[in-house]
Design goal:
The structure is a homodimer. The first copy, chain A, starts with 5 loop residues before the first strand and ends in a 20-residue tail after the last helix. In chain A, the strands form nine sheets. In chain A, strands 5-2-1-9-21-20 form a six-stranded mixed beta sheet, covered by helices on one side. A four-stranded parallel beta sheet of chain A has the order 13-12-11-17. In chain A, helix 1 packs parallel to helix 8 and helix 4 (129-148) runs antiparallel to helix 5. Chain A has helices spanning 15-23, 46-50, 63-66, 129-148, 152-158, 168-184, 214-227, 316-334, 370-383, 390-403; strands at residues 6-11, 29-35, 39-41, 60-62, 73-77, 80-84, 89-92, 97-99, 102-105, 109-111, 160-164, 198-203, 229-233, 237-241, 244-247, 250-253, 256-259, 263-265, 282-283, 289-290, 293-298, 303-304, 306-307, 310-311, 349-354, 357-362, 365-368. By secondary structure, chain A is α/β, with parallel strands linked by helices. The first copy, chain A, contains ten helices and 27 strands. Helices cover 29% and strands 26% of the residues of chain A. Chains A and B meet through strand 5, helix 4 and helix 10 of A and strand 5, helix 4 and helix 10 of B.
Chain lengths: 423, 423
């Protein structure tokens, strides 16, 4: 590997970072990919890990393994805490310093509580595998607590579940949790009937899945209700603590609230010292570079891009397209040419709801129900290609949908000394 | 469920507890099964989770799910901390108290450091899924540390692995780890060659796998060496800390020592107030009940049973046989008959070493190498029957053995803020 070749540092091995890296496989670049985790995560199926349908390794692949044949890439495990744009170097949490010629910042988003960070311990969100395993534990433990609780009111609080936020993640979690309570856990408890669990999906706005047309949203809400979910729209959650949450003016006793209401950009963007949007994302130039820093690109959920008067959505296809675009832009720059303008190609919008229920909006095509679900499944299995676990995931899915069983109902993650009173 | 029927409390959902419970499916007993975990674990494959070949849910099944059709059983998640034999009740960590008419104590064993508990943080053992995930993290992180370490001596310390204890678990871990270093990680690192990793298997006694005949043990040692393991016998480890370990008089710099040297019985046995053997196991009567407490039985690794002058080994088949025997004994007692005497039926001894390498000793049959490995595989897949993951495990195995890839090389389990200097 020539030491004189251009050194690109990529921060983040998600869809944007990984797709850019792979698109540069034949480029005369030296690439260092830095990630906090050792794996790329197929985030669209993360809710399945949280709801015990898949195990963590089913939807993750080691970055080193994906990139082992690409000899111009070095993968480093580590957390970047600061970008020194003037000196062109990044600083890691363990004091390592890595210099760069070009930088791709693609660290994505985390969940955000919009000024209510005190809710975080009582309403965990879902962004990483660790989040998913914590959530799995919390959801399964609620039924265990209810089973041994003898006071009826206290038992009811353990069987009250709330998902805050009616976007795709909230809808997926609510639909799947209702299925678990109604079907998966049937006959397994002796003191409670899991079907008595209340699963509430709470959206402050007027409807769930607002990125879809209203008629499809209405169908999604009906499908959710058919699965056993209570959909509450137009009412914000105004308080969350260890004992429950307030919905409008009503306090609901509950120990299991899940936060799916909002995301904020990775805090690393702030260390760049460039203008950000309200959510903390970087306001990039049309070629996805940072104004005044043409050597720095931003891709994925961290980039704030407007197109035709609308924001480019924070979805996996957009992140992959940005990654590939940035690779093209870097090649153009290296050849002394101007970088092209990024254009997001919208191939459609899919959301799954639960057992055989989904909505699909592709061009003029609108589908809902079983047919939409098959469409969703086919698309997700197709995009899992390249993961060796694709086959295992399909097997798990087939077995789950025939038997209502879920493969990964295993609680672990912390030493247990009895059951703690609340968690 | 009649409230007047005999109440059996089973502590521990391992092989002994679960097999006893299932064998009482038609008995007029009310059974409460209490376990610290929500799952039964197929412990013979736990080393595969630690070495990233299988994911945790592949070898575990929820106890509630296994027992959902058996209406005379209630499963409770909880940790028993005390047995009050005089009052016939068990006390849980969260102050729950459960009374019993009969008790089956089957809480197994944990790893033990024989007076050197200060070694525990530096040399974790392998008994639970949490142990396996911690070990997986430790083994994979060692290579990550080596990759970013620039000092050659410090790097070598990260690539020095030691497995202390030459029993079946130590042999499995050493063989599989050597395979990972030599094959799985090939081409994935840029600054180190994982094949330079040294994997040492250290046994204080004269040979590994001492429960096998010496000629088979010698073959096992040759197979280990062929896989790249350095076998050290006859030399004890005399010290372990964060920087390394002492082997005889030599200090070896290492940050990755695994403890597979010994087990001690679950401390719960001590609360019974009855005679124990040196390892803390209960010296049971010939029918597996506790002397002076005919209403208490002990099964599995917690029971100290002599047969024909030799101890019954702490293996899964013995635990299952004890569980089934105790069910028979309880039925006999309920019918006013004397409980039968337990007799262990030894069907043979298998140990796997690594890729296509194992030894088998069944009656007069002695096998080693590939044939023994197939024998081992067939036996383990057969005994996984009843687990829905059997098929998934076979697929993972087939793919692992063809491609040298391992399905579960995913590091998680704690928040990462950079890479801590040593863990």
């Amino acid at each position: 590997m020539s030491t004189t070749s251009h050194h690109l540092v990529v921060i983040g091995g998600g869809f944007a970072g990984l797709w850019a890296t792979r698109a540069l496989d034949t480029a005369d670049f030296r690439i260092t990919l830095i990630d906090r985790h050792n794996h790329h995560l197929f985030q669209p199926l993360l809710y399945q890990v949280a709801t015990a349908g898949l195990s963590a390794p089913d939807i993750a692949a080691p970055l080193r393994n994906i990139l082992r044949q690409q000899r111009n890439v070095e993968v480093q495990l580590g957390e970047v805490i600061h970008i020194d744009a003037a000196r062109r170097q990044v600083v890691l949490a363990d004091d390592r310093i890595v210099g760069y010629d070009s930088l791709l910042l693609a660290t994505g988003a985390a969940h955000a509580y919009f000024g209510n960070d005190q809710w975080a311990p009582y309403a965990p969100g879902l962004k990483t595998l660790d989040d998913a395993l914590l959530l799995r534990r919390k959801l399964l433990m609620a039924f265990e607590h209810a089973e041994i609780e003898t006071d009826p009111a206290a038992r009811a609080a353990w069987l009250n579940f709330a998902i805050v936020g009616g976007g795709p993640t909230g809808v997926e979690l609510a639909g799947t949790l209702a299925e678990i309570a109604r079907h998966t856990l049937k006959n397994e408890f002796r003191n409670i009937d899991p079907r008595e669990a209340k699963v509430r999906l709470i959206e402050a706005g007027p409807r769930v899945l607002p990125s879809f047309p209203p008629d499809l949203t209405a169908k999604a809400e009906r499908q959710l209700e058919k699965l056993g979910v209570e959909v509450h729209t137009g009412t914000p959650v105004t308080h969350i603590d260890a004992d429950g949450y307030r919905l409008g003016d009503t306090f609901v006793p509950s120990h299991t609230v899940v936060w799916a209401a909002g995301v904020a950009a990775s805090p690393l963007a702030r260390t760049l010292g460039v203008p950000l949007d309200r959510a903390g994302r970087v306001l990039v130039a049309p070629d996805l570079s940072v104004p005044d820093h043409p050597e720095i690109f931003v891709g994925g959920d961290l980039a704030s891009v407007q197109q035709d008067g609308k924001p480019v959505p924070g979805v996996a296809p957009a992140a992959k397209q940005m990654g590939k675009h940035i690779a093209r832009a870097l090649r153009a720059r290296a050849a002394g040419q101007p970088a092209p303008t990024f254009r997001y190609q919208d191939y459609g919008n899919l959301a799954t709801i639960g057992r055989m229920a989904a909505i699909v909006h592709v061009g003029k095509l609108k589908l809902s129900g079983l047919l939409a679900w098959w469409f969703w499944l086919a698309a997700h299995v197709y995009f899992l290609i390249g993961f060796r676990n694709r086959f295992v995931v399909l097997v798990n899915w087939a077995m789950a949908y025939w038997s209502y069983q879920r493969a990964a109902r295993i609680i672990f993650g912390r030493p247990q000394r009895g059951i703690p009173p609340k968690e």
